[in-house]
Write a structure and sequence with these properties.
The structure holds two protein chains of two kinds. Chain A is α+β, with helices and mostly antiparallel strands. Helix content of chain A is 65%, strand content 10%. In chain A, helix 2 packs across helix 5 and helix 7 runs parallel beside helix 17. The chains are: A alpha+beta, B alpha/beta.
Chain lengths: 642, 255
Amino acid sequence: MWSISLRTLRDRWTLFVGALLSVALGVALVQSSTVLLVAAARTHPAPASTPAEARAVRETVEGMSSLMGISIFLAVFLSVFIIGSTMAFTVVERRRDLALLRLNGASRRQVRRLLVGEGLVVGLAGTGLGALLAPLSTAVEGRLVHRAGLDAGLLHVGVPAWILLIDLGAGVGSALAGAFVAARRAGRVRPLDALRETGEQSRVMTVARWTWALMLGIPAMVGAMLAQASGDVLVAIMVGLLVIVAGSIALQQLSPLVVPLVARLLALPARRHVVGELAQAGMRDGVRRSATTAGPVIVLFGLVVGLLGILETQTEASRVERVQQSSAQLVVVSHGDVSGRVAATPGVTVASPETTVSLPVRVRTPRGGWARVDAPVVTAVDPAAYRRLTHQPLAAGHLVDFTGGRAVLGPSASDDGLGRPSAVLVGGRRLAVVARVATTIAGGADVVVDRDDVPVSLLAHAETTTFVGVAPGSSAGDVRARLAGLSGVSRVSTLQVWAQHLAHQEGRENNGVMEALAGLGGLYAFLSLVNAVAIGTAQRRREFAVARVTGASRGQVVSAAALESLGVGAIGVALGSAVVAGCLLGMRHGIEGTLGVPILEVPWTLGIGLTVAALAAGAGTAAVASWSATRTAPVLLVAARE
Amino acid sequence: MTDLRPAPVVASGATTPALALHDVRRSYGRGAGTVTALDGVSLEVPARTWTAVMGPSGSGKSTLLHVAAGLERADQGQVWLAGHDLTRASDQMLTRLRRSEIGFCFQSFNLMGALTAAQNVALPLRLGGRHVDKARVREVLASVGLADRARHRPRELSGGQQQRVAIARALVTEPAVLFADEPTGALDTASARSVLTMLRNLVDQRGQTIAMVTHDPAAAARADTVVFLADGRIVDRLERPDAATVAARLAALEG
């Protein structure tokens, strides 16, 4: 059986190129992500580093760990998914060959072993190729995380020898896992199928398909409903990821139900023209081929558009939240504290300065000890002014009690694991905790303290944001002009513009993460789309030849194949949009619950761009493949038996 | 054409038949759409003889062959092949029988495109986990006149040559029965004649049992016995046939 596996691979290598590249890509990504993950785990701030430097290192390590963890998960998952669907597709396309083996005395187990053998060879070859590609992908990943605002230069990167074992495990493991799925299907091919012309199974919506569709579809729907806007970008991405991945696959499994439906819709205008009719017939007849092609489009669309939608929605939500939670009209950004002069400016009723400072923080544990907080964010404010302008909902306590010598736990305290301490040590000074701010979408400080409790030297040169209340009857424009004239002031803007600016900045960082993840998923999806169309079309030589001897021109055959691929691509986009809608509507609901305003940001430009790209890639591949499949004179193919 | 072949060995009648069908029924579909393909067919194919099955389109010829070879299950009745009841055999049993007792050749040659002629011939042995004797494979290929084509792929061979490879593959396991479904259907007259002569020689010289479905009277005339099928029943039978008689009977059935 092994030698037959090898023979088959050699003779019909085009069927396996996609699977091989998927394995190679998966191995390269797993290796580079593991290298960066190990580097992150080994990196600690130098003993002599300042709190700010230590914080930068820790943030890089944390961000890198999460990002690389997700990358590994995604790479392995997508590899198995694509290899599984590619191999399963080769089973459908080689149905006759497999049946022939059965006719010649092969047992079910032998046929399964053939498929597993192919998977093993593809896995080994892919691992080798992937290991060669890994340095390249490490470099690319390093650049992507750099764009995400993380500095890979802070890490001690080295390539350990045992990484080859990881490569082998990931490559061969994912190839075998994918092959097992296909092998089960191959084992069900009956000897008699060799004598039948049709390669398609009569029933495409199998029990397995229903099971997968429900098993993944239900959690996806529940996830979409529960998807609350979390303050943590990475958590939001993970929930969204679950919805998108599970939802995409559930719909991919269901696509054989949808294909005939859309094919019928397409029939209305298409039936007038013979090419349209051919395309529609092909789509209806090759339900499995259509479903295999639509699958990657669903995943591509769901993953890329969905992720960007989540991030844009979250960015917009945090902007709205910032505007909602402050009653200031203007925001002054300055070098050093200018609040005294701002407050003295005519037309200003209140000036509330906020400065983020680097101070060690310890929290009182229930047992009476003190626990150190890793990389804390401490914001120094003027409690009286803070009370007047800030309206963040409180989880406990009252802001009235917030004065010098006391502290408030900020919106990030809960996420950063500060707990519910009765007191905190900030820079060695003991402060009683009088209130806790509820978690917000935008996040913010861990601890809010009085400026008088912070060494003056820390405040003197730090960047300070001062929120400004304008007196009723005063012109905000006039006040703004006066504030801009103060020395040390670098920028004065309205609250809306300031929030917009901040959101834009955060969004840019998020987009770096998003590019890394979506680019990865998109690459896989693109690969498998082109692969599915190429295999599906190349195997139809006989069918095309029959169409041609019946009188179709080569151009008509090619147009019909391209049109069919367009239709299938459209189904993929429609289903992918459904996943995105489920995910974003869930978020919209969650945000409405928190902020009282429904927020939904749809990345239309990206969505339309991707639709055009996917449809063009599918139709283009179909055109090229069918052009090449019709190169031989049709009579030769129709007459030929093998 | 003068028929110089010897009288069939069947005359003794002492041996048990290589293949026997008893009251076999097979239908497709349900309710009003039911199509009865085999309606109580009983047939014996004696060992070392060649039986041809003829009949108009839709008479049930192919179903008869599929059921007799264990590729489809009968709804009712029994199929005995080399001492085994195929209607009760498990999938594993059927697999084993395909490796040892059953050989196939078809109108479409059904060769593995990825394998050479010699590899195609050796395939059933390898699938059965048996030692592949290269000399034996060469010998079988030589017996079908393809000694010099062992390393060719199917697409490098003519139709007649491909069919010979298919027959060699069917013979390599020395099956109890060789099932042939329109073996000359895709061949030109000259190739068809040489394939039929080869099959005749297999029966006469090596004692091979053949069950063949055809609608070519010239092919059926080379068999020892011709059985005529219509609407899923055996309606006629001809011993030591000649082409003209076969054609006349078939025309009567189709008319």
